[in-house]
Amino acid sequence: MSQRVFDLQTYRAQVGWQICLKPWIKRHSYSKTFNDVRYGKLVDVEKALAVGDASLFDRDEQGGTLLHVAAYGGKLDTFKALLSWGVSPEETNDDGQSAAQYIYGMYGYSDTALTGIVKIMMNLGALEEEIDVMFSGARRSKRYAFPDYIWRVPGVIQIMAGDRYQEYLQLPPQARFAYLSWSKVSPKVLLEQFSLSAGITPAALRAVEGHYDKSFLNPGRGLSLQGLAEKYFIETPIGRWDSPWVRRDKTEGKIGLRRFHKFYFWRKLVRWYLAGISLSKLTELGTFMRDDVTPFLCGLSNKCRLDCGYMSARREPRWMIQGVSRAMKFWLEDLQSVGIDLAEYGRRELAIYLYSSCPLRHRRGSELLRGSYRDEAFNMRLVSFEYGPRPEDWYLVWDTDAYEFAGEFWDLIENPPLRIPGGWFDDD
């Protein structure tokens, strides 16, 4: 389905003011034309434009141009071609977002493509407003793209800062990291940036008031400890089943090594960031999504949610329990390394957990999962956990359907219902 639209344009020429109609079509976001742009099929895009099956001014259902789609898909050659053919980088979609705000998409494209697109947009002057906010840290209602990649892709921050890079490194933490979100960082890149700035200390960064922490849509994301714990736990590599959706490229032997290498930097970042933190701060309740949880409980519950989502139904409970336990031990090792008393930490966490709104306390009602996985995968709850002064002293105590039904069965055998005097059993 498509809809033909005309824009009435006026412009000044040598012969005076002129009026013209600019035709364009609003197409389905996944129509052939937009898919060709999305996947970098430049030859097919050229053919469609040549025969009139598409126009440079076409829009998708959200009002995005072909350039928006190319930026979102990270197709550098297509992006360059569209600009050379006359697509304007200043065009916005229905939400007022330019192609610059689509640069970091969802298709896992290379750092080279992203860096190339950023350079092009810089040369066109399309990132001036983003750069101003990057330096000021000012909070505005508009969504910006730079937080999606300056702490995730090596070299991008140097490109955007340009001649002002040294000035950027001297900015106070509040201005520099107000838009930082743990969900959008590469720990290796972020640690390298910390090392270049003498004024960035763990305590100074923890004092930053993040803009994303006040978002009513995703409370807790941003610079909160809950957001850090969630990212840490879900990034924990467990074994050969890790990231099964990427195993189709037949490189499963290397996937685990890549994830373990990446996780090393997450551990290094956590140890740096939590240095000198108080136990009361570490066990403080905070809202993450819809629940008031501590960082530890936030990490556990989100690790369970993620792992259940891609384990095979027959092995899910066992694999999930092993994965969560291992992530917990990594977390405890890192806390111990920064001087946290694990015995006292465990005592406080357990006392909080037993009266908290943590989703792990409930069976199914937590809505951690939906669809086919929900009944089979997460029909269990965390009853309690054992703790001690060493990470190996900690143990998660789960209650599954099987244990509950077995307990009810043996209780019925050992304690049969009392017979009412004068009553009888029906033959039925």
UniProtKB/TrEMBL annotation:
What domain of life does the native source organism fall in?
Eukaryota
Question: Which windows of the sequence hold ANK repeats?
Answer: 62-94
InterPro entries, alphabetized? Ankyrin_rpt, Ankyrin_rpt-contain_sf
Keyword list, A-Z: ANK repeat
Name this polypeptide is given: Ankyrin repeat protein
Which organism does this record belong to? Answer: Colletotrichum gloeosporioides
